[in-house]
Design a protein that fits this description.
This protein is of the alpha/beta class. Helix content is 43%, strand content 14%. It has 2 domains: 6-54, RecR Domain 1 (Helicase, Ruva Protein, domain 3), CATH 1.10.8.420; 57-198, 3-Layer(aba) Sandwich (Dna Topoisomerase Vi A Subunit, Chain: A, domain 2), CATH 3.40.1360.10. The chain has helices spanning 6-16, 23-34, 38-54, 71-74, 89-98, 126-133, 148-161, 186-194, and strands at residues 56-57, 64-65, 79-86, 103-107, 139-142, 167-170, 197-198. A 5-stranded mixed beta sheet has the order 4-3-5-6-7. Strands 1-2 form a two-stranded antiparallel ribbon. It is elongated, with a radius of gyration of 20 Å.
Length: 199
C-alpha cells in the first residue's frame, strides 16, 4: 500500500479483507468513512460494536438474532413441520424475499469441505438431527449451494435424516450450478422450491 498515513492504510486493509471488496473498492469505502462527520463515524463504529455484542445464533435454527429465538422460529404461523436447510444466514434472507416459503429454516453456517478443514463437527448439524428426530418435522429441504461442497453436505445430511422417517428433498435446479443462493432472484428461488425433488 502506497499510503504513509498508517491509520488510513490500516483502514483500507480492513475493508479489503471483506469478501467481494478489492483494493479500489476498499480505498473508496475508506475515503467515504474519512469524509463522515465525527458523529457519523462514531455511529458507524457503534453499529459494528453493537452487532458483534448483541447478535448471536437462534437457539432453534442457528440463524442470526438479537433475541433467544429468531423472528421466524418465534412466529407461530410458520409451518414447523417443514425445515429448509441453508448454508448461511444470507440464504434465509434470499428465501424470505420470495414471500412464498412458509416453513422454517436451519442454518448450517458453512458446508462440509475437507480441503478447507471443515467437517460435520464444525457445522450446526447436531441440533438439526435433534429437530428432525422430534416428531414435529415431516420434511427437510436441502437448500445448500449447488457446489461440490453443498452437494456433499446435502447427501451427508440426507443419510442421517432419512432413517428418522423424515422426507428429505433437494431444491430443483433453477438455481445455477456454482452460484450462491444469496444472489439468486426471487423467481428462480420460488421455482426451485416448487420443483424440489425427493432424495
Amino acid at each position: 500500500m502506497g499510503y504513509k498515513v498508517a491509520p488510513l492504510a490500516r483502514l483500507i486493509e480492513q475493508f479489503e479483507r471483506m469478501p467481494g471488496i478489492g483494493k479500489k473498492s476498499a480505498q473508496r469505502i475508506a475515503f467515504y468513512v474519512l469524509g463522515m462527520s465525527d458523529n457519523e463515524a462514531k455511529n458507524f463504529a457503534q453499529c459494528v460494536i453493537d452487532a458483534h455484542e448483541k447478535i448471536h445464533r437462534c437457539a432453534v435454527c442457528g440463524d442470526l438474532t438479537d433475541s433467544e429465538l429468531c423472528p421466524i422460529c418465534a412466529n407461530i404461523t410458520r409451518d414447523k413441520s417443514l425445515v429448509c436447510v441453508v448454508e448461511n444466514p444470507a440464504d434465509v434472507l434470499a428465501f424470505e424475499r420470495t414471500r412464498e416459503y412458509k416453513g422454517t429454516y436451519h442454518v448450517l453456517h458453512g458446508a462440509i469441505s475437507p480441503i478447507n478443514g471443515i467437517g460435520p463437527e464444525e457445522l450446526n448439524i447436531k441440533s438439526l438431527i435433534t429437530r428432525a428426530a422430534s416428531g414435529e418435522v415431516k420434511e427437510v429441504i436441502m437448500a445448500t449451494d449447488p457446489t461440490v461442497e453443498g452437494e456433499a453436505t446435502a447427501m451427508y445430511l440426507s443419510k442421517l435424516i432419512k432413517p428418522l422417517g423424515v422426507t428429505v428433498s433437494r431444491l430443483a435446479y433453477g438455481v445455477p450450478v456454482g452460484g450462491d443462493l444469496e444472489y439468486a432472484d426471487e423467481v428462480t428461488l420460488q421455482r426451485a422450491i416448487e420443483g424440489r425433488q425427493i432424495l
